[in-house]
């Protein structure tokens, strides 16, 4: 398994934890932003979309951890599409 795939798997774990109520936006964001091999392996538009979603997620978390629930499906969709 490549490092990029391992990094994507680690992000998927963070997304699932956030969706299950046991994760944090900070942990997901740190994991995703630190996934340099994944970001380099993705088509440029995918990396741009991921970073945009993270920015939105972090902004909403400033107000309340509960307010980011609407973005979790977007993060899950990104995770699913990036595996294609």
Features:
mainly alpha; Class 3 adenylate cyclase
For the termini, the CA-CA separation is 15 Å
Can you count the beta strands? 0
Order of helices and strands: HHHHH
**Oligomeric organization of the protein chains:** single chain
**Computed structural class:** mainly alpha
Task: Give the domain tally.
Answer: 1
> Cα-atom Rg, whole angstroms?
12 Å
Question: Which whole number gives the mean pLDDT?
Answer: 84
Weakly predicted, low-confidence segments: none
- The gross shape turns out to be globular
Fraction in beta strands? under 5%
Helix content: over 70%
Give the number of helices. Answer: 5
Largest sheet: none
Short description, anyone?
By secondary structure, this protein is mainly α. It is built from 5 helices and no strands.
Please describe what this structure looks like.
The chain has 84 residues and is mainly α. The protein has one domain (3-82). The protein contains 5 helices and no strands. Helix 1 (3-19) runs antiparallel to helix 2 (25-33), helix 1 (3-19) packs antiparallel against helix 5 (72-82) and helix 2 (25-33) packs antiparallel against helix 4. The model has no long low-confidence stretch (mean pLDDT 84). This is Class 3 adenylate cyclase.
Topology diagram in text:
Elements: H1 3-19, H2 25-33, H3 36-41, H4 44-63, H5 72-82
């Amino acid at each position: 398994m490549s490092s990029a795939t391992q990094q994507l798997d680690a992000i998927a774990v963070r997304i699932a934890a956030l969706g299950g109520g046991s994760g944090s936006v900070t942990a997901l964001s740190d994991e995703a932003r630190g996934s340099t091999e994944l970001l380099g392996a993705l088509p440029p538009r995918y990396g741009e979309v991921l970073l945009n979603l993270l920015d939105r997620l972090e902004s909403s978390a400033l107000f309340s951890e509960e307010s980011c629930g609407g973005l979790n499906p977007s993060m899950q969709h990104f995770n699913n599409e990036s595996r294609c």
